[in-house]
Amino acid sequence: MNILIADDHPLTLIGTKGFVESLGYKVDDICSNGITAYNLIIAHQPTIAILDINMPGMDGLEVLEKIVKQKLKTKVILLTMHKEMTVFKKANQLGVFGYILKENAQDELQKCLEEVKQGNQYVSKNLINELTNNSDIPTDLAKLTFAEKKVLELIAQQKTSKQIADLLFISEKTVEGHRSNIIQKLELPKEKNTLLIWAMKYFKS
Amino acid sequence: MLQRNTLLLLFYFLFLLPCCKNKKDAESAIYEAPSKEQLDRYCTYLEKPENFFESKYMPFFYQRFNQLLNENKLDSAAQILAITGKTYDKNYKIDKKLLQISLSFLSKHSSTISKRYYGRINRNIGNMYYMMGDFDSCTVFLKKALVVATDYYTYTNNAETKYYLLFSYLNNGKLDQSLTAGFEALKMFENLKDTSFQGSVNSGIACIYSFEDNYNEALIYEQKGFELVKQTKDTDAVFVAALNKINLYNTIEHANLVPFIDSTFAFYNKWSKRDLPRNRLSMDSWYALMLVENNKLSEAKAILDKIKLILSTTDDEVGKDYFYNALTEYEVKIGKGSDNVGFYKKRIPELKKYEDYLRLQLYYMILHDDAVVKKDFKAALNYQEQVNVAADSLNNRHLRTKVAELDKKYQTEKKEQQIDLQKSEITQKNTYIALLIASLTGLLLATFAYYSWKRQKNLKQEKTNSMNFTKQLLENTEDERKRIASDLHDSISHELLNLKSIFKQDLTTVNNKIDTIINDIRGISRNLHPVMFDKIGLVPNIEQLVERTQTQNDFLVSTDIAYTGTLTSADELQIYRIIQEALTNIIKYAKAHAAKITILEKIDKITIEIKDNGKGFHVKEMLNSGKAFGLHNIIERSRVIGGEAQIQSSAEGTIININIPKKV
């Protein structure tokens, strides 16, 4: 098993290399830009490539995209400062195996390498937290989506489905869908105006 | 009895130079009568027609003429010869001696004398031959009289000569040449604006028509001629035309013959200042004929006897013919043989020699009638045959057809010329008008085009300037933001990272603190510029923006996005900024329940709609307030990407619509 590391920041590059080697892995190639990284991957077909995203020439996402497109066996781990969900989603969509934030590298890189070696995906815990709503809203409401919560709010204000639909620029059918979802998620008793009663009680307090 | 209608063919023509000429409008100097010529006393005396009858007239001429010849003043000699010949003309007199002098003078000096006198002397000679009945010689000299017209005198001389040629040719039966000469003369007199001669020429043309038995045409031309001369009040010309008209009426046995003779007779007697023997002879002969027709035989006899006395005073053959015609008519009427047989018989060889078939025919008719009266039928038969021979010579059918053709051709040509002239005038006028209108229109259009072009140019320039400026501004801002974002990210974050590794083994608090800093910087960076916008694309970025807006502000934003990414990344960024700006505004000011973002891609354009159900605002007031940077930002950014933003707002909420045409 061999590893390639690419990062345009020399200190980080050498640090990462030393850290990975200290974990007992062999690092075959290191480089500081995307194009070299891509060429080395083509030439040596390493088992794992640890890539930064922001690199001159070609960024980590582009290299990832090409590897996947050419169906190379090399598995890509993106080691980046980007905590932005849009970036992660894009990488995920392209078929990334590992996504680690640099600030968590010391804690997570070993686990990540192990998972990826076995063919599993590994994503930084910080990101996972971002993905799953971890706000401190009361537990009942935490189950609901943002739109469902909005609908619930309006229900508490005794709005009809039609009025809610108009206010939120959604269709009445969508409102009805939200209603039944909320009832299900909150496990409310099946009785008349059950949602209205619950919402009014809840928002009054 | 044979008809004696052929008499009509013996025409009168005008020898007088009509004096009334108004040529103010003459087009060219050649048509313009110069002011009256100053003549010396000899010429002045010789020119007056009334002096002609004085006994010293001719001696006076010879004395002066020979004197000039001796002094070798040839041109003056030619002048005096021309003037004297002209006076002979006016009095219808022949002088064989003068004729000889003229001929010999011309044969010696024709090359040295001026063209004007050369032409006139030749014409005088021609006219004398005409009166003598020698039409061949007449034609020859009249032709010589036609000189190259260089001034008014030569031009007038040519015109009048053409008029005489009409008769000279006609009497020889050369109808085509006669008609040609007639129409040429007519044209020249039109140029000269000489109404009197125009009338006379028309009368002459009438004679040609009656000669070929085309009496309808003859009447038309005769009438035209008569009307024209009447306008001029030139009594000489009126009288000549009247005589020709009588002649024509007589020929066609017109119902108005007798009344017309009567009125002409009355007119003639009232107008007596030019009671020349020739005129008197002709007039009285016709009057006598009228009396014979009316069976007033004794009165007719009295007149005929009276005018017989003036026969010898004139050399005008036509006048004599009229007289003999009337006399013979009278004698036939009273049943007595003519006393004039000898006169006729004597003249026949001469007529044959000159090929004057016209008179020949007439004389044979008279002789025939006379023979019948005298019951000499053998002679009558012979004369009848001679009449036929003479008639045959005249009635050259070929010539007659030709004359008709010629006339038609001439008329058509004339009409065509007139039409062409009118056409060209009209065309010219139209062209001028068209040109004027065209140039005016052109000028107007050009002015209009110039101003609108200039305006358009200015507007376009303004627009381009403002667009460029705005674009530049926005681009610069964007570049700046990008730079700040990457600086924050690459440098500060990394430095903090390294810092963190140094403090690793020590304090968890420091660690946490640093994590916070990193996250803060992330936030700043992200707010400045969406992370990796180029890579991620418009739609995920908007979704991210919406999600963050919802969670951070507890505000529902629904989306309906159907966009496949046909715009450039730079344009997409502008759309992102527009939506960001709009959402910021809604959250800050609208107090809305929710907002909705719609992006639709159509064949030719992309439409973006951002609407909320907030409290709304007065769009115009807001835009002009100077505080609405956000709204202006939206409008400007829309413009930069080639689109247009429309903002509608009311108490129901606000809708921002942006249309971006797709670049082809």
Discrete helix count of chain B: 25
Rg of chain A, Cα atoms, Å:
24 Å
**Helix-strand pattern of chain A:** EHEHEHEHEHEHHHHHH
Mean pLDDT of chain A: 88
Secondary-structure blueprint:
The complex is a heterodimer of chains A (205) and B (664).
Chain A: E1 3-6, H1 10-22, E2 27-31, H2 34-44, E3 48-51, H3 60-69, E4 75-80, H4 85-94, E5 98-101, H5 105-117, E6 122-123, H6 125-131, H7 139-142, H8 146-156, H9 161-167, H10 172-186, H11 194-204
Parallel strand pairs in A: 1-2, 1-3, 3-4, 4-5, 5-6
Helix pairs in contact in A: 2-3, 8-10, 8-11, 9-10
Chain B: H1 41-47, H2 57-70, H3 74-90, H4 96-109, H5 115-132, H6 135-145, H7 152-171, H8 175-192, H9 195-211, H10 215-232, H11 235-251, H12 257-270, H13 277-293, H14 297-308, H15 317-333, H16 341-354, H17 357-373, H18 377-394, H19 397-503, H20 508-528, H21 533-536, H22 538-553, E1 556-562, H23 569-590, E2 594-601, E3 605-612, H24 619-624, H25 629-640, E4 644-650, E5 653-661
Parallel strand pairs in B: 1-2
Antiparallel strand pairs in B: 2-3, 3-5, 4-5
Characterize the structure shown.
The complex is a heterodimer of chains A (205) and B (664). Chain A is an alpha/beta fold. Helices cover 55% and strands 12% of the residues of chain A. Chain A is built from eleven helices and six strands. Chain A has helices spanning 10-22, 34-44, 60-69, 85-94, 105-117, 125-131, 139-142, 146-156, 161-167, 172-186, 194-204, and strands at 3-6, 27-31, 48-51, 75-80, 98-101, 122-123. Chain A has a six-stranded parallel beta sheet with strand order 2-1-3-4-5-6, sandwiched between helices. In chain A, β4 (75-80), α4 and β5 (98-101) form a beta-alpha-beta unit. The N and C termini of chain A lie far apart (60 Å). The model of chain A has no long low-confidence stretch (mean pLDDT 88). Chain B is 70% helix and 6% strand. Chain B has helices at 41-47, 57-70, 74-90, 96-109, 115-132, 135-145, 152-171, 175-192, 195-211, 215-232, 235-251, 257-270, 277-293, 297-308, 317-333, 341-354, 357-373, 377-394, 397-503, 508-528, 533-536, 538-553, 569-590, 619-624, 629-640; strands at 556-562, 594-601, 605-612, 644-650, 653-661. Chain B has a five-stranded mixed beta sheet with strand order 1-2-3-5-4, covered by helices on one side. In chain B, α23 links the parallel β1 and β2 (594-601). In chain B, α13 packs antiparallel against α14. Chain B is rod-shaped, with a radius of gyration of 58 Å. In chain B, 39% of the residues are buried.
